[in-house]
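@channel sequence for tomorrow's demo:
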Amino acid sequence: MDIPLEISLNSDPPLISVIIPTYNRPAYLKEAIASVLNQTYTNIEVIVSDDCSLESPESIIEAFQDPRLRLRRNARNIGVGLNTTYAFVESNGKYVASLNDDDKWDERFLERLVYPLEIDPNLVLAFCDYYVMDDHGGVNWAATQKQTKKEKRHQLQEGIYQPFWKIGLVDQAVFTASAALIRRDAVTWDKLFEAGVFWDYYIAYLACRSGKGAYYCPERLSYYRVHAQSENMMSGNRNIQAKIRKGKAATFCHKRFMEDENLQAHRSYFQQELAHANTTLGIGFLRLEQPLEARNYLYRALQLQKINLRTLVALSVSYLPQSMANSLAHIRNPGLFVRLR
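structure tokens (generated this afternoon):
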């Protein structure tokens, strides 16, 4: 969709706040910031929210010499949920968008997504498709197409979806962390921290709850980076704490969604996801050599989903002698978290 001339030349375009949460990724951060400052839509404020990185990104911010860019830095590490929450609460724009510090945007990202929101007050957000890139910034076409199909954007036509419960929360087609623009006053931003590392998924939920619609732009206007130090890759490999963070976040979200009366048509899906999250937490605590804590989560998983081989195997392992249980719990399991993001 091209921006009409009368909109693109508006002398008083709305302010857009861009949030970039960051932690210990200075090289990628520079790319992310540059992609925002190079947007064809220029009335923006950019808040880099640093979660107490080992080295402050202050010098990176200063090097850009752009008054639209500012740094907020936590005195201690508080986690991505709170770090992002504080930045959203401090934002001033009519619209807000976030960009992961290891991702980047096409220069037309904001221009393309702000127009439908400006002409239709019944929209809460506009979102687009995105590329998957490797750690060096090269586009992985096979992964890109796979992700589009996985999140079912290939089934979407350009236009308005209202309500958008299914595409937002079941299909997870709305990637609010790096590929959406949101009407700021339609979402309660001070509750994001409750969802931990799933803060972006929870934004989609809060946006759905507004009752307003979502506009889909099928262009790929964002680039999602897959690399060894991303939270998703760590939680899918041997980083136990990352796995537990993700399991707890998933447990919070899917329990909340199961309880929402607007989502009862999809309750079985969220129940299955909640069982999966509890099993993941159980396996995480097995790897921490805490079998009693592990069993609590594994029994919850069985209550939600009676027969599940993965859960039953993990529960059986929890009753083995500790040395044997520890060896089995650390066997690599690529199915522990299969989502790319």
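heads up for whoever presents: The radius of gyration is 21 Å.
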